[in-house]
Design a protein that fits this description.
single chain; elongated; 20% strand
Length: 369
């Protein structure tokens, strides 16, 4: 048992060989080889497999008693692998993320980057109210007024001068509704889904594609801009005055300073950033752990990402924002939940007819190629 677990962690999983069993029999001890540190990208898994609980994770140690936590099954959003996880919650907060077994995706493991990704939720300042920028000052405004303003701007935009930058971290339900609004209700709008690549794939779990739902974007009928050339052209067009309205959906870290000089810029984001501060309109989005929906990993496996905590302010999910705007633009939108949107996807999108909450289940379902 114990030696088998250590042997698995040492030789069969990461292949980095930091751990060993020293001495024999009842004197056996687990340790690192001389001169080596346990610092591989999967080191946190040793905490999960430690049979006596002697190994603990520094970031979680003494923060909460484990029996105080409620585990909510979900999916990690740190890369295109989509590792199955449990979100350990208490007091409306995520305290830790641990791997959940799924032999088809991540077996029993997860990387350290994904394991600690929840920390940004509390460490990053949140956008807690809709903001309108007037005369160089940002003014908090009620949601209905903010939505009315954006809808009126979309109505008034010149044909072909509306554009949206939609993150591939949005759910399948969100992206379906993005297409419904910007490709159907506003048929001449431009849609760009930026690629997000960093580092390289490894032999175990980590993917260079840091978007959890790029495959879902493709299934929704959108093209992921892997080299971000379309993104560069769009931002240049906005800076040149060719774009009247630019809507940025959950895509963090963009430099919109030049684009905002001539375009009306709306940023939909959970967090406060330079883009939010300089936007003409900023709308609070639900953060990871606050929304329900479906992500499709790079293998084509549709998996359910679940709500574990409630936003402390009125923050919308992507599909909700699209539905509210479509209603203001005269479209009939019956959806009242992400499940309603998923049902529409199953009924209308080729190859996705099998997607139901039951078929996706706790470990996901493979989508036909």
């Amino acid at each position: 048992g114990l030696k088998q677990l250590v042997g698995t962690a040492k030789g069969e999983v990461t292949g980095t060989g930091e751990l060993g069993v020293f001495q024999r029999g009842v004197r056996s001890m687990i340790g690192t080889f001389p001169g080596q540190e346990l610092n591989n990208p999967y080191s946190g898994n040793t905490v999960d497999i430690c049979p006596v609980g002697a190994l603990t994770l520094e970031e979680f140690r003494f923060k909460k008693r484990v029996w105080e936590l409620k585990d909510v099954s979900s999916v990690c959003g740190s890369c295109a692998r989509g590792c199955n996880v449990n979100l350990g919650t208490s007091d409306n907060k995520i305290w830790r993320m641990t791997p959940r077994e799924n032999q088809a995706v991540n077996r029993w493991w997860m990387c350290d980057e994904g394991r600690l990704s929840y920390q940004a939720l509390d460490a990053t300042p949140r956008l807690t109210a809709a903001r309108i920028r007037k005369d160089g000052q940002t003014v908090a405004t009620p949601w209905p007024e903010a939505l009315d303003l954006l809808a009126s701007r979309l109505k008034a935009a010149r044909p072909g001068s509306t554009a949206v930058i939609a993150s591939a971290s949005l759910t399948l339900e969100d992206l379906h509704m993005v297409k419904r609004l910007f490709a159907d209700t506003l048929p001449s709008a431009r849609i760009v889904v930026p690629g997000k690549f960093r580092g390289s794939d490894d032999a175990l779990l980590i993917r260079a594609d840091k978007s959890p739902n790029a495959a879902g974007a493709h299934l929704a009928g959108l093209t992921v801009d892997d080299g971000n050339r379309q993104l560069a052209v769009l931002l240049a067009d906005a800076a040149a005055g060719k774009v009247d309205v630019l809507v940025v959906l959950a895509e963090e870290g963009l430099d919109l300073a030049e684009a905002g000089k001539n375009a009306f810029v709306c940023v939909f984001s959970p967090f406060i950033s330079a883009a939010v501060e300089n936007a003409d309109l900023a709308l609070p989005a639900a953060a990871y752990g606050e929304f329900e929906g479906t992500w499709v990993n790079f293998q084509g496996r549709a998996q359910k990402v679940r709500r574990a905590v409630i936003s402390r302010s009125v923050a919308l999910e992507g599909w909700q924002l699209m539905a509210e705007l479509m209603r203001r633009l005269g479209a009939v939108v019956p959806h009242k939940s992400a499940a309603d949107v998923l049902a529409e996807i199953a009924a209308t999108v080729p190859n996705l007819s099998l997607l139901t909450p039951k078929t996706i289940g706790p470990t996901g379902v493979q989508v036909p190629a």
